[in-house]
Amino acid sequence: MSARYIHSRLTARQVPDLLQAILVAELIAPSQHLWLVSPWISDIPVIDNTANTFQALEPSWYRSKIRLSQVLASLTKQGSMVCVATRPDPHNNSFLETLKTKADLDYLSLHKAEELHSKGILSDSFYLAGSMNFTFNGITVNQETLSYETDPTAIAEQKLNFRARWGGRVS
Question: What pLDDT, in 10s, does the model give residues 60-106?
C-alpha cells in the first residue's frame, strides 16, 4: 500500500519519534542503499535505547541514546551502502570523522558540496524530505515542514535523482 504523509509544524517530540521509527525499521530490514543529505549534520541521538529496548538490533549498544553515526555504521556493517552528502564545514567534519571511524568504509560514500541546500533521507522504502537539518535544533527545537513518502514510483524517481547527484547503486 502506498501512502504520502505531509505534516507541517511538527512538535519537538514528533520529529525524533519519526526518525527513531524509520531508522529502527531500516536496521530490521536494511536497504541496499541509504542516502542522507543535509547541509548541516551532527551526531544527534536518534534511537532511545535507555531501557535496552533495541538490544536485539545491535547487541553491542549500551543502555543509552544511540547516535546517528552508530546507526549508519551498523547499516554499513549489514551491507547497506550509506551515502552522506553535506557541506564542507568544520561543524560537519566532526560527524563525518566519527562516522568514518565506526563504519565499514567499503559501504560508506561521503560527498561535500558548498552549495548544498537539499535535506532528506532516502531508502528503498521511504523518502523523508523537507526543511530539517540533521542537527539538534533541526530535530528538537525548530518547527519543520516534512514530507514522508512511501510510494514506490516516487522513491524510484528520487533514487535516480540521488544517484545522479551523489552516486551509489540503484536497485
Answer: 898 999 999 999 999 999 999 999 999 999 999 999 999 999 999 99
For residue 92 the three cell numbers come to 560537519
pLDDT score at 64: 94
Q: Say if 33 falls within a structural domain.
A: yes
Q: What is the pLDDT of residues 130-145, one digit of tens each?
A: 888 787 766 776 677 7
Query: If you write DSSP's letter for every residue of 101-159 in order, what string do you get?
Result: HHS-GGGEEEEE-TT----EEE-SS-EEEES--BSHIIIIIS---EEEE--HHHHHHHH
Q: Which long-range contacts (CB under 8 A, 24 or more apart) does 94-97 make?
A: 94/42, 94/43, 95/41, 95/42, 95/43, 95/68, 95/69, 96/41
Q: What is the distance of C-alpha 94 from the center of its chain?
A: 17
Is residue 106 assigned to a domain?
yes
Q: Is residue 100 part of a domain?
A: yes
* In-domain check, residue 171: no
Q: Which domain holds residue 94?
A: 4-166
Average of per-residue pLDDT across 112-119: 90
Which residues are registered as beta bridge partners of 85? 37, 111
Q: Which three cell numbers stand for residue 43?
A: 551526531
